[in-house]
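Much of what follows relies on a compact textual record of a protein's fold. Each token is a code from a learned vocabulary of local backbone shapes. The record below shows the convention in full.
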Amino acid sequence: MSQSNIAVAKKWFEEVWNKSRREAIEEMLAPGAPIEEAGDATRGAEGFYPFFDRMQATFSNPHVTIEDALADGDKVCLRWTFTAKHTGDGLGVPPTGKQVKVTGISIVRIENGKLMHGWQNWDMLGMLAQIREEPKAPTYVAGA
């Protein structure tokens, strides 16, 4: 059961983020299932769509790489890396064209092949810092 749950969790990231399939959200997320992040929770596909739409409006070529996957019973923990190019203003920041790379961890509870509950934590501040970062002046070393 653990390996099949890991496969479902990985499929979520592949279908929703790597393939940008909005319809996969409703296909894979149980109705009313909470996804908790930063003290807030969305519920079901309708609650998750605004986050998905905002990310799609902000980034092009999004890609999630699963670095590690662990399962215990009906829960799966994934450590992942997200890369994308900042090409839209979906976060209220004008597009910079910068490539971003952030990491995160998601835990999901799976039942009958559907995500029933999710908890995630990722480096949102690090992502914004990469977008807003001013070009750094070259460092010169005396005598070099």
About this structure: The domain at 2-132 is CATH 3.10.450.50 (Nuclear Transport Factor 2; Chain: A,). The first strand starts at residue 34 and ends at 37.
